[in-house]
Amino acid sequence: MKKRGAVYEAPEYLSGDPEIARFAEQHLLVRGTTPRTREAYQRDLEHFGSFLKARALGAAPEPKQPAPYEELVGAAYADVLAYQTHLARSRRYAPRSVRRKVAAIRTFYKSLRMAGRRDDNPAADAILPKIGKPLPKALRREDVEKVLTLVAGGLAGESDLQRRRDCALFACLWSCGMRRAELVGLDLTDLDLENRLLRVVKGKGNKDRLIPLTPPAAAALSAYLAVRPAATVPAVFLGRGDRRLSSSGVYKIVRTYMELAGIADHASPHTWRHTIATVMREQGADLLFLKEFLGHESTATTEIYTKLAHNRLRAEFDQFHPDGEGHD
After folding, report:
1. What pLDDT, in 10s, does the model give residues 84-111?
2. Residue 192 forms part of a structural domain
3. From the centroid of its chain, how far is CA 123?
4. Of 18, 55, 289, 300, which is most buried with the most CB atoms under 10 A?
5. What is the rounded distance in angstroms from the CA atom of residue 216 to the CA atom of residue 196?
6. How many CB atoms lie within 10 A of CB 163?
7. Active-site residue (options: 244, 273, 274, 281)
């Protein structure tokens, strides 16, 4: 498999504010962040910049003010505190979202300080709201089989090409535990079906990794590639008009089939990643193996699947044991 760089379908987002755009290009890009991460940072900073501009104009904090945001570079701790107060009072933002926004602001001013443009970080002492660490959602094996059976049958009015593509897409999710962005970025040169290997290029954390394919997944990919039309883009999964299947397209496909199977609460591609990780941990997979398989930075992240596996084991015990909580 020839080495290549990551490919993204849409042009990368760049803020209309020159300071935020410079931060994205000169700080975040150097750190090896993904385009999706850089966009999230920029939009969070734009939200803060808009708040500062509205205060300076004596306007309401909503709706969003247009760029540029002249007050951003010189903001003080009092401005950060006022912004946090606004977020808390609006009740539109979960604690996790508030933490993410403040973290983006803190990183922005840290970059200005490193560049010698400030001698302080006004967000360094910002108090972050506490958040719990909810366990990820995972499907039961019968739900997985139900969805895969529906995918194999295809949707009404769907072409054979679309059905085979969707089968291959779900096979990658179930076999490899791939993130949605990794699935979208998959190119033909990343596949080695003879040896049942798949390469993820610049996944989260800017890391490449090789993932084994199960025999059914390799077969599903082969069946799809046999009818995949010639295209100018090297993407494995094609959307409409000779284009790479988009991230939103993957989400729509997965959610459609999961809802048809009666699964709506956590119907997303990421649920499949959580599910295969949980199942493998239940069956005794080593944490270090799962860390590499999933592309985690540390086993601390992977450890959640141990807890989730234990919780599922307890739930099964309570349901089926004659003295469990599921029996009168």
Report:
1. 999 988 878 888 889 899 999 999 999 9
2. yes
3. 26
4. 55
5. 10
6. 18
7. 273
